[in-house]
Amino acid sequence: MTRPASAPLVTPTITYSAVAGKVIERLRDARGLTQEQLGGALGIGQSAYSRLEQGQTSMSLAQLHVIAEQLNTTPGSLLHEADTLTRRLLAQGVQVKNEKEIPTAAILVGLGILAALLAAGK
Q1: Cα four-point dihedral sign 80, 82, 88, 93
Q2: What is the model's pTM?
Q3: Alpha helix ranges (H) inside the chain
Q4: Phi/psi of residue 98, each to 5°?
Q5: If DSSP codes are grouped into helix, strand and coil, which group holds residue 54?
Q6: What is the pLDDT of residues 22-51, one digit of tens each?
Q7: How many domains does the chain have?
Q8: Angle CA(80)–CA(120)–CA(18) in degrees, nearest 5?
Q9: Domain ranges, residue 50
Q10: Which of 15, 33, 39, 72 is the most buried (most CB within 10 A)?
Q11: Three-state DSSP state, 2
Q12: Are 14 and 112 in contact (CB under 8 A)?
């Protein structure tokens, strides 16, 4: 008797850009700034800025510097917080990748775990 093939498991996955974007989003919200305001400081529109924050587009070092300045912090502090959050995600079994070619289901599961970790940390 043969066993039915089981469905492949989805490994929760997220990009490092999305993790960094979440860190920036939390600080932006805490400072009462809008995506439009930060986008304006970068010389881009709200929708382009939103893609940066969501990790759909990678930000340049110059953009990171301007964002940090607008949030009254340093690029190093933003990256340190993103690294800390990355370690927490890895401990929860979430893969954090640098590239964007990740299955959508894996991204959604990874984002769900990220949201839960952020909610628990508040």
Answers
A1: negative
A2: 0.75
A3: 16-30, 35-42, 46-53, 61-70, 75-91, 104-121
A4: -90, -25
A5: coil
A6: 999 999 999 999 999 999 999 999 999 999
A7: 1
A8: 45
A9: 13-121
A10: 15
A11: coil
A12: no
